[in-house]
Amino acid sequence: MSNYDDIERSEVKHMTKESKQDLNADIITGEPGSHPLGTGIGGVGGAAAGAAIGTMAGPLGTLIGGAIGAVVGGGAGHAAAEAIDPTHEEAYWRAEYANMDYYKEGYDFDRDLHPAYAVGYANRANYPVDARFEDHEADLERSWHEVKGESRMEWKDARKASRDAWNRVS
Description:
The chain has helices spanning about 10-15, 15-25, 35-45, 45-70, 75-85, 85-95, 110-125, 135-145, 155-170. The chain is built from nine helices and no strands. The chain folds into two domains: about 5-85, no CATH class; about 85-170. The chain is globular.
């Protein structure tokens, strides 16, 4: 039983952004309390959760699941999911991508840009806090080629999106 059992999801959806953050409400479902991915990671263990996500979602899912699955245990899983909230990052970039200077008419968020953003935000946790994107660019480019799938972006363009996402979660 959580501290939020008396709060209805429908009420949460109509609250201010600040109230939702205070409740730690899931951005999609409005469910208050711990991030659902973090809870799953805590219960199952990071490596297994990362593998399960990867199996369901392919290489991009493996990248995101592996980033979150790096921390194991109930409370630690919750902390990892909050530190690297892929749902929040995806929602942010989905709303902002068309405003970026590297966006080109015809790019599709899911096909072209989301993998580039994920390379930045999902890999960031693998490096020290003071690490610079440029110092690890060769690794990040390799990651891009592993997860790009059907993206029509070349690394020179995807790099800009990855760097933006890296810097946002720094």
